[in-house]
Design a protein that fits this description.
This protein has 395 residues and is of the alpha/beta class. The protein contains seven helices and six strands. It has two domains: 181 residues, 60s Ribosomal Protein L30, Chain: A (2-Layer Sandwich); 170 residues, Up-down Bundle (Methane Monooxygenase Hydroxylase, Chain G, domain 1). Helix 7 links the parallel strand 4 and strand 5.
Length: 395
């Protein structure tokens, strides 16, 4: 939590959304390490808007929970239908039918094994996921009420949740291996289907041979359909769970940042952008950001490093998060601003300091899940700056 000894000064108006439009001129709070003084109305409003206050932040949600619960797994039980027994007719075709029934029995036994493995994996994934979310929920509950930075209990719980997520990854790898085995069975079923059809063309068969081949062909076709459904459902499970684990890894990275600072954030910024894209159909920029001209532009966030350990993370997260909710493809300019007071030596020292501060802000943004190629970093000097500052601009 940001201490009340720090003041968050409102630079200008917040987001203006007429008819759901987004304005690039919207301003977010600036951060400063100065102690608040006086009790005027303007200052009271500034303190009420402080991102570290006890007021709930609209749209914020605990990391690991914002992405929603675990995606559903398939529920189908792929038990083979069985093979109808036949009788010997003494003909070559009759012997061929017996041979094909044996192959079909072995194939269905293999499908039964695949089905058993699938049901076990599904139960294990649910169990591992529940344990993971229980641990993450406990961490978020503690961060919600406030805690010390780097709380060792939370660090231990974080390590446990990371191990749970690793177990989920291993479960998905096993399911992916199962899909490969099922694909092999699918090849065998296609061969049996073709062999059953070809047996009808063999000469020297009696009516009973063709009756048994008809039943066999139907059962092979039902097995082919069963395998196709099994393969599709396993592939769907693998795809959904793989995306789910990737999302949770991003949220865990942000949760780690929250544990370090003792504060709670929302979901990973990259996940917020992807969710917004899914809802709006907007493309996400993937090309590397290049520094743009900031002349005449107003910053989203101004961070003034006029005291040690300025707690900027929560306010920066809130600002960038809200921007991404409205503009998923947004790119940002991160500008280190050094004051020009003093001689050339002092300006050089301040320039280096402001650059390091900008790099620390960039590291925080990356830890929050913002892809590095969405941010360009630059430096400048300003006669109006009284301390080293970092400005964040919307591209």
């Amino acid at each position: 939590m940001i201490s009340w000894k720090y003041k968050v000064a409102v630079v200008g108006a917040t987001l203006l959304l007429p008819a759901c439009a987004f304005t690039e001129e919207a301003l977010w709070p600036s951060l400063t390490g100065e102690d608040p003084a006086g009790g005027n109305t303007q200052q009271t409003q500034q303190q009420a808007a402080a991102p570290g206050s006890a007021q709930a932040v609209p749209g914020a949600a605990p990391a690991g929970m914002a992405a929603g619960a675990q995606p559903p797994l398939g529920t189908t039980d792929f038990s083979p239908p069985g093979v109808t027994p036949g009788q010997e007719t003494g003909t070559f075709v009759g012997k061929k039918a017996i041979e094909l029934r044996g192959e079909l029995n072995r194939l269905q036994a293999s499908i039964g094994q695949h089905n058993g493995v699938l049901q076990q994996l599904r139960a294990k994934i649910v169990q591992d996921s529940q344990r993971y979310h229980t641990t993450v929920g406990a961490i978020n509950a503690r961060l919600q009420v406030g805690t010390t930075p780097g709380n060792p209990i939370l660090v231990q719980q974080f390590n446990s949740s990371q191990a749970d997520l690793d177990r989920l990854s291993a479960d998905i790898a096993e399911m992916n291996s199962l899909a490969t085995n099922v694909a092999g069975s699918s090849t065998m079923s296609a061969f049996l289907s073709e062999s059953a059809r070809a047996a009808f063309g063999i000469s020297g068969a009696v009516d009973e041979d063709h009756r048994q081949l008809t039943i066999l062909e139907d059962e092979v076709n039902r097995t082919v359909v069963l395998i196709d459904r099994l393969l599709k459902e396993v592939a769907d499970d693998v795809r959904r769970q793989t995306n789910y684990v990737a999302t949770e890894r991003s949220n865990l990275n942000l949760l780690s940042t929250g544990i370090k600072s003792g504060e709670i954030y929302g979901a990973s910024l990259v996940n917020k952008a992807m969710v917004s894209v899914a809802g709006r159909g907007s493309p996400v920029a993937s090309s590397a950001a290049k520094a743009a001209d900031i002349t005449g532009r107003r910053p989203l966030v101004v961070i003034r490093f006029d005291k040690p350990n300025v707690p900027f993370q929560q306010a920066v997260y809130n600002a960038v998060s809200r921007v991404l909710e409205r503009r998923p493809a947004a790119m940002f300019d991160l500008v280190a601003v050094a004051p020009t007071a003093g001689g050339p030596a002092r300006i050089a020292v301040n320039t280096n300091k402001s650059r390091r501060y900008a790099e620390s802000v960039l590291r925080s943004l990356v830890e929050m899940g913002l892809p590095p190629n969405r941010v360009a970093i630059a430096g400048t000097t300003s006669g109006g700056a009284r301390s080293n500052e970092v400005h964040i601009y919307l591209r």
